[in-house]
Specification:
The chain is of the alpha/beta class. It contains 11 helices and 9 strands. It has a 5-stranded parallel β-sheet. It has a 4-stranded parallel β-sheet with strand order 2-1-3-4, sandwiched between helices.
Length: about 300
């Protein structure tokens, strides 16, 4: 039985298979309407989430399956002090597959050790968010047509942004990729991520505190929000939150075929004036998330259309 806790749990070949399956689901959705009939997905969300949880639920319903679960820790037995191990041991007897989000790093890994069914990590603190990375990869595949020879700018909160860390891990496996790291000094990419996935692999990269200076070099601009919940100090948050805002004016400095991605939710780091730009693909990106999760659920359950 396979679990997906980290994007590196999937080989490049497995990712290629998932992307190909998602492509087919996009092209022929009716073919997959009963692929997971009589299968149940449990969504165990110990941390608030709208898009990820609804995307998982929509994916399973789109495959003809059913969904059960909770959307916050307070509505589960965790509020009574039940351990993750016990919760998952019980829930895995009610469902065929589990998607779990938890504020503590490592919680989904613990869950996978006590589950009788596959566990998908739907985000654990500042650690991993592999299905967002799969969403990002499907978006890049659809919008750019390749994974190699791309210059990827990552902008905003690179210190705490789990989506950024996972995307760097995933894209570091492809040839000719270059990273441009754009952030305030306080939110720079952690040295362990830079060392393991960029320096040790001899991948070209540069760091900048200015989005304007580097936007013209990029094939992809991956924007992130400066997250209040990841700060210990409210004063630091307020000082940095507006540091990097993408505007229509900044977009004029970018290449005509650059794409703008964002894991959402957006606060104010991308001006709404950018939404009408054809290079803005963050809402398409959210739609791709449903299809790649459909593909992942099918693969982990071993079902075919």
């Amino acid at each position: 039985m396979k679990n997906v806790i980290n994007i590196l749990d999937l080989t490049v070949e497995e990712i290629d298979e998932l992307v190909a399956l998602a492509d087919d689901i996009i092209a022929c959705p009716e073919k997959y309407q009963e692929a997971c009939k009589h299968k149940i997905l449990a969504t165990l969300f110990f941390e608030p989430s709208t898009r990820t949880r609804l995307s998982f639920e929509s994916a399973m319903l789109g495959l003809g399956g059913s969904v059960l679960g909770f959307s916050e820790a307070g509505s589960s037995s965790a509020a009574k002090g039940e351990s993750i191990a016990d919760t998952v041991a019980v829930v895995s007897s009610y469902a065929d597959i589990i998607a779990m989000r938890h504020p503590k790093e490592g919680a989904p890994l613990v869950a996978s050790m006590h589950s009788a069914v596959p566990v998908i990590n739907a985000g654990d603190g500042g650690h991993y968010h592999p299905t967002q990375t799969l969403t990002d990869l499907l978006t890049i595949h659809h919008e750019k047509g390749r994974f190699d020879n791309l210059t990827i700018g990552l902008c905003g909160d690179l210190k705490f942004g789990r989506t950024v860390h996972s995307l760097i891990e995933a894209m570091s496996r492809y040839e000719g990729v270059k990273f441009v790291l754009i952030s305030p000094e306080e939110l720079k990419l952690p040295s362990f991520v830079k060392q393991e996935y960029i320096k040790d692999k001899h991948i070209e990269y540069c760091q900048s505190t200015s989005l304007d200076d580097v936007i013209g070099e990029l094939d992809i601009l991956y924007m992130t929000r400066v997250q209040r919940e990841r700060f210990f100090n409210e004063e630091d948050y307020l000082r940095l939150k507006d540091s990097y805002i993408l505007t229509a004016e900044k977009m004029r400095l970018a290449r005509p075929d650059m794409i703008v991605m964002h894991p959402l939710p957006r606060v104010n780091e991308i001006s709404t004036a950018v939404d009408s730009d054809p290079r803005a693909c963050y809402f398409r990106q959210a739609r791709y998330g449903r299809y790649i999760r459909m593909a992942l659920i099918m693969k982990l359950l071993g079902v075919r259309a």
